[in-house]
Amino acid sequence: MEFIDIETFLAIVESGSIGKAAEKLFIGQGTASSRIKRLEDELNIQLLFRQQGVRKLTLTPEGEYFLSIAKEWYSLYQQSMKIRDMKIYSELRIAATDSINRFLFEDVYPYFMIKNPNTMLFLQTEHSTEIHQLIEQQAIDIGFVTTLHKFPNILAKPVLRENLVLLCHQDNPFVTSENLKDLKPEDEIYSIYSHDYELWHKRNFQSDRHKVTIGTLSMLNKFILYPNTWAIVAHSAADHLEMQHHDLVVVPFKKDPPPIRTFYLIYYRHAKPWVNQMTAVFMKDLIDVISSFPNLEIVYTENQ
Fold first, then answer.
1. What CA–CA distance (Å, rounded) separates 129 from 106?
2. How confident is the model over 78-89, as pLDDT tens digits?
3. C-alpha pair distances (Å), 77 with each of 2, 4, 67, 70, 74
4. Which residues, listed in sequence order, are joined to residue 144 by a DSSP beta bridge?
5. How many CA atoms lie within 13 A of 6 on its CB side?
6. d(CA 245, CA 234)
7. What is the pLDDT of residues 174-203, one digit of tens each?
8. Among 141, 101, 100, 112, which residue's Cα sits nearest to residue 288?
9. What is the CA radius of gyration of the chain?
10. Residues in Cβ contact with 180 at an 8 Å cutoff, skipping those fewer than 6 apart
């Protein structure tokens, strides 16, 4: 069946006559009649009653049955023609911890979107445990975490490593002494990072009394400005907050430093091929941006 034949048939049904349909389609009446005849010959049925002296055409029972098919055929044809004008968008669903999204990937996502305008990003901020669960359920495609959990269908690759540093007011005694005894536990804004970090922390700060214990680094900004408070944070986050508040300083631990923090890419073991392709594109753009950050060690290689 030809599109022009179906289009003519529907125009005749709508207008009630071959003449009006031909006028609407900017064709001759003879052309319209020929198209209907060709359609009837192809289907081997009569679609219209043609009665001498009756101006308004009516459908035969076969024509009535064919009308719904013709409408659906016409709609599908129009939709198929739109495909060539469409931009086919791909989607990448990413979840990361608060500290990664806020302090590391803030410039990564816009960079990726500019370079890949036909990709839609779906972004979430979750704790490491929830990110693993979302990957296992295939609710997201990739995740970025600092703590790994065992799930049967999740694989992990290290991406970045960075030191934990002290963030405190510039008048804090530790800035000049670099003696951990000058850091009072009751003034600490405490974050839980890893089991190794907790062991290090207990060894150096035997008291469990903290001014505040926070679940996400986005809360740190609310408390670190109180007098005498201090926090141990990843270098990238500390640099970010130091630029925002000129009274704060970043002090590396030169003796007995905390365990180095590692950031991992996690993904589903049996990911679909296009997810793997989009992940490779994202990781390339991520490394392009992150490579300009000071104090970060990039350990990611695609073929790990």
1. 22
2. 878 776 665 666
3. 10, 11, 15, 10, 5
4. 96, 265
5. 16
6. 17
7. 888 888 888 888 899 988 888 888 899 988
8. 112
9. 34
10. 174, 204, 205, 256
